[in-house]
Specification:
Helix content is 47%, strand content 6%. By secondary structure, it is mainly alpha-helical. The protein starts with a strand and ends with a helix.
Length: 299
């Protein structure tokens, strides 16, 4: 005997020997969970454009609508917040670009600008210093004993010397160059020497002789002769006057005047040398050499 029992359809145990078949009711509809009402999304206002919006992003401008965080202190911000309620930092692009409080600004541009200005001021000061303190021309004294000497072509500074010392140094420089045949040096320093001569407080026989010899080195015989005439007028019989006249006549190719002045030199030599003039002692080699020339030319 076979009985068909649906599950949960019997309340008492079946009789003995009864075959039990379980019926799972295949045609019965599957149980579904109940439908719950969907949550209602309350529209909010976009913090960027101000239009009503729902969801995570604004449908008008695309700005995020969810809670944001502060880029500085990481505090949670409301969607409408424009400044952080904890640290006061601006929200959005201003927070990304603005420097944080206590942070050190970039000093590299300021350092570069400061160094450039310092270099510029240094160059201006150096140029102004050179222009306001021009170097005085230096002249060497190759024949002056005890004088400071420098490399060739770089004579010592004579700006601190007295006018007479300056004139004597320049005279020595010109005469040394003339003996060596250095015409360029003679032409360069002779005007300076003559300018120093004009600055002298007084003119003695030695100074006039020096100026006359510089004129002769330049080939200016009239100026040299004028100084010789002044010298002999001030000191008649002075040997330097005859030396100057004789050399000027030799440059002008006047042999007769050369012999005339040589003879006058020999005539006054003994008397003048007894006077023990200082200039004679300083130029003793010149005087003795001219004496030999005059004696050799005498009849």
């Amino acid at each position: 005997m076979t009985a068909s029992w649906g599950i949960n359809r019997f309340q008492n145990e079946p009789p003995a020997g009864t075959t039990i078949r379980l019926d799972f009711a295949p045609n019965r509809r599957a149980i579904r969970p109940p439908d719950y009402p969907r949550p209602f999304l309350t529209p909010t206002h976009c913090p960027s454009c101000g239009n009503p919006a729902t969801g995570k992003f604004c449908s008008h401008c695309g700005a995020p609508l969810g809670p944001a965080t502060c880029a500085r202190c990481q505090a949670t911000l409301s969607p409408e917040a424009r400044f952080c309620h904890r640290c006061g930092a601006p929200v959005g692009a201003a927070a990304a670009t603005g420097p944080a409080p206590g942070s050190r600004p970039d000093r590299i541009p300021w350092l570069i600008a400061g160094i450039s200005i310092a270099i510029l001021l240094g160059v201006i000061g150096y140029t102004a210093g050179r222009n306001s303190h021009p170097a005085a021309p230096d002249m060497a004294n190759n024949g002056a004993p005890g004088g400071a000497s420098g490399p060739p072509g770089q004579p010592p500074d004579i700006s601190q010397m007295s006018p007479r010392e300056r004139f004597d140094r320049l005279f020595d420089r010109v005469m040394s160059a003339a003996e060596q045949g250095d015409t360029a040096t003679v032409v360069r320093f002779s005007p300076m020497a003559l300018a120093a001569y004009e600055q002298l407080d007084s003119f003695d026989a030695d100074a006039r002789y020096h100026a006359a010899m510089i004129h002769l080195a330049l080939g200016q015989t009239p100026e040299a002769l004028a100084l010789a005439d002044t010298l002999l007028q001030k000191d008649p019989g002075h040997l330097f006057g005859y030396v100057i006249r004789s050399q000027a006549a030799q440059q002008q190719n006047r042999p007769a005047d050369v012999k005339k002045n040589q003879a006058a030199f020999l005539q006054h030599y003994d008397v003048e040398m007894k006077k023990n003039r200082v200039e004679y002692q300083q130029h003793r080699p010149v005087i003795e050499d001219f004496k030999k020339q005059a004696q050799s030319a005498a009849p």
